[in-house]
Amino acid sequence: MTESNNKKLEQLEEQKKNNDNQAITTNHGVKVSEDENSLTAGDRGPTLLEDFHFREKMMHFDHERIPERVVHARGFGAHGEFKVYEDMSEYTQADFLTHPEKTTPVFVRFSTVQGSKGSPDTVRDIRGFATKFYTDEGNFDLVGNNAPVFFIQDAIKFPDFVHALKPEPHNEMPQGGSAHDTFWDFFAQNPESTHAVFWAMSDRGIPKNYRQMEGFGVHTFRLVNKEGQSYFVKFHWKPLHGLESLVWDEAQILHGKDVDFHRKDLYESIEKGDYPEWELGFQMITPDQEFDFDFDILDPTKIWPEDQIPVKRVGKMTLNRNVDNVFAETEQVAFHTGHVVPGIDFTNDPLLQGRLFSYTDTQISRLGGPNFNQIPINRPVSGVHNNQRDAMHQMSIHQGQTSYHKNGLNNNEPHTTPKEEGGYEHYQEKVEGHKVRQRSESFKDYYSQAKLYKNSLTEAEQQHMADGFSFEIGKCKSVMVKQNAVNQLNKVDRQLAEYVAQNVGVDVPENNEEVQSDASDSQLTLEKFDIPLLGHSVAVLINGDIDAKTLKDYAEVFSNNRLNFAFVGQHAKDLTEEVGITETYSTASSTIFDSVVILSDGNELLEEAIDFAELSYKHKKPVVVSEVASKLLNHSKIQLDAPGVIVSDKPDAIVDAFERFRYWSR
Ligand code: HDE
């Protein structure tokens, strides 16, 4: 990892436990003489209750699992650091955003939403992107997603939405996906979900990995500077390794070939030193611009088009260290939208307001009480002092007689801190109104931005989205649900509704009800992002005897370009001796790699190699074929003159082949 004064890692270091050269003890410190056999009355007799070591070991094991997160159960995280590019004190007083010389430790957890802890990584779903900044003024959590909008507008609907999305209660199916009746019934009956569903059905719903995802804070937050001036802000994470997605067929194959595909990618990139990076971006408007738009800025189902309100890139985050223990760190980390620091504040977005309750509440059952802030991964680096006491799993030994404010016995310590000296003070927004249970009229356009999103995509991306809808709605059993879902699509886009109606076997709605929207925000397409070669992968398919020198030449080119690679042969043994290869046609899968190179000694190509390469070709990936191998591909589906297929014996042909990462026109 990079050199930095990382206070959080130093803090975690103190908690680490290493068992090397240690005697096994009980949890109460008594050395254990025997750990293979329990204490019995005679060789073959009953086990004795007095075997305290056995009882303790078993009791602890019996309680090893904790409740998984009610949503976002499946996830993976890493440590890193954040640095702001320049002093942002014009907009915010937050210490970590105003000191470019400071490095702020961070912990990020990525996740899927629907599936349980053991579900596959590559399901179609929105991804969570939660960041904890351990700032010198306390923890700031940016608990975002990889889509900029959410499925509902008011937090009171969250349990309903999640019940519809999660596996159906009568049979607990499906695991990890939204292709089922209750989800599409929710979509049809709750039109506020339309825009977010369009994002989920697009390529954004099947990201290629965590490194190449965007992140969004979704809600409108506030920045507040020292003078008390406030700006509305939307937070963004822009990936510096580009934005890429899987192909749906590939994602489905990966469910079986490698359920851990995304976590493995993140873990291995960090181990290798290819550290994932993102820039933090702000879209900002002043309070007097609040009503300047044709959407309500408090509505979390709306984006702020980047062509109207550009994203200012303010700093960089680098993930550079894997965790030591997934349970202790990734599983026990507790994010909360309410963890803010001076200079960052909330708005009246009704979804955000509800989240402010939910995130600490849920930890009470998940982490077993209100002291979860004392778990090492959750501890701020800035210290904790207050009069909160006791409760389950209290780790601190508080000294002294008093635990109340105000007190005279202890000089009224601990003391409060005025705003000028860093005490958090809420922004003094003027609020008035009647107590009502009703949705603001300004939240009621559900379709324009869904249309905007569709229009902004390239033709290939629009086709993927149409096929995504067809697959998911097609999986529903209820004809009523399918018809209602297509009727909703008809309100956004007539052509899409017609296409999906035909695919899923329901009627095309009689009238064209599509919303008119000529706006376009071309930032939304995946192709807008620069994508470096770094971190992409190549499978070199070996057919017959290829000399070690040739393979070493390929390896050198790949390493120089920071590409990951594997030589894939029939038997690992044949290759490992020469160039250190471990993959065989039975262990590797085309879906795990971004490209293939086909090498041959002139004898017939292996059937497994042809299958492997054809799947890569089908998934529109770059293909390089050696001159000899090209003569042997006559009967395969690979067309040598197709875009992205290069016939060459030069190892660096792969760099040209990666001119595009997918050849959609193939
Ligand atoms: Fe969450 N969400 N959420 N959510 N959410 C949780 O907190 C909730 C929402 C998000 O890696 C839970 O610790 C409500 C939007 C992420 O640990 C829970 C509402 C966005 C994660 C919860 C929302 C998110 C969560 C479950 C509507 C994107 C995983 C376990 C008002 C901006 C964080 C937990 C991690 C997790 C509640 C909506 C993102 C139950 C009530 C919008 C990334 O507290």
TrEMBL record:
Required co-factors:
heme
On whether Isomerase is a keyword of this UniProt record, the answer is: no
Q: Which InterPro entries match?
A: Catalase (IPR018028), Catalase_AS (IPR024708), Catalase_clade2 (IPR024712), Catalase_clade2_helical (IPR043156), Catalase_core (IPR011614), Catalase_haem_BS (IPR002226), Catalase_immune_responsive (IPR010582), Catalase_large_C (IPR041399)
Give the span(s) annotated as Disordered.
1-44
Q: This protein is called what?
A: Catalase
Give the first-level EC class, as a single word: oxidoreductase
- The Catalase core domain sits at 25-413
> Which Gene3D superfamilies does its entry note?
1.20.1370.20, 3.40.50.880, Catalase core domain
**Keywords (A to Z) from UniProt:** Heme, Hydrogen peroxide, Iron, Metal-binding, Oxidoreductase, Peroxidase
Q: Which domain of life is it from?
A: Bacteria
Q: Give EC number(s), comma-separated.
A: 1.11.1.6
| The protein's role, per its UniProt record | Decomposes hydrogen peroxide into water and oxygen; serves to protect cells from the toxic effects of hydrogen peroxide.
Give the source lineage, highest ranks first: Bacteria, Bacillati, Bacillota, Bacilli, Bacillales
Pfam families in alphabetical order = Catalase (PF00199), Catalase-rel (PF06628), Catalase_C (PF18011)
Q: Which reaction does it catalyse?
A: 2 H2O2 = O2 + 2 H2O
Query: Lipid metabolism: present as a keyword of the record?
Result: no
Q: Which SUPFAM superfamilies match?
A: Heme-dependent catalase-like (SSF56634)
State where composition is biased (Basic and acidic residues): 1-19
Similarity annotation: Belongs to the catalase family. HPII subfamily.
**PANTHER family documented for this protein:** CATALASE, CATALASE-B
